[in-house]
Structures are given as C-alpha cells and as structure tokens.
Amino acid sequence: MPDGIREPFPRSAIPLTADTLLRRTQTAAALCAAGYPVSDKTLATKATRGGGPPFQLFGRIPLYRWGDVLAWAQARMSAPRCCSAEADGWLDQPANVDRISRGTVKGAV
Which residues have a Cβ under 8 Å from the Cβ of 36 and sit 6 or more positions away? Predict the structure, then answer.
C-alpha cells in the first residue's frame, strides 16, 4: 500500500491453518481481512437466528473453525456478473436484449 494509506484489516488477521479456532470478534476481523465484510454483530445474530457459519461453545464462548467460516463465506458469494441486471434474469428475456440493442433502455451501453 502507498505511504499514508493503511489497510482497514491487516492480512495478519487471517489464520494460517483451517483448524484454527477463533472467537467471534477475531472471526469477523479475519473475514474482513480476507475480503468478506462481516461484523461480529452479524455473526452473533446469525448464531441466534440461523444462517451463519458453524461454531462450537467452549463454556459460554463461541469458537469458530477458520476453515468452516471461510467455506461459509465463499458459499454466500454470487456467480460473477457483468451488470446488475443479470441478478434477476432481466437480460435472459429476449425482449429486453432487443431493447438494449436498439438503445431504448436508459443507461444502456
């Protein structure tokens, strides 16, 4: 990084092995450092409501295995896309492709 510009999350926050156990705040920091912006509060909510990465309790302390957390984050990623219209299948409809080619859609290239 150029001088004067700091990374928001140091790469050193990313565990070296998949079996490393992390507390919730460490897990959130490691996910952010790996490029997955998730807060510890989001992890806490998902631990209560479901939909989050698997964890184990050590007494009252939730511990997350880094390999499981990383797999969970990667599974949440969408497929690569070229524009936001691809998300809802708008471009899959022939009439819309025709409108784009004629230039009758605002913002179309």
Answer: 73, 76
Name residue 30's amino acid.
A
Distance CA 24, CA 57 (A): 11
Whole-number Å distance between alpha carbons of 27 and 100: 44
Q: pTM of the predicted model, to two decimals? A: 0.70
The pLDDT of residue 13 is 82
CB contact at 8 A, 22 and 70: no
Q: Compute the Cα dihedral for 77, 48, 69, 13 and give only its sign.
A: positive
Rounded CA separation 70/60 (Å): 23
Domains of the chain: 11-75 (1.10.1660), 80-109 (no CATH)
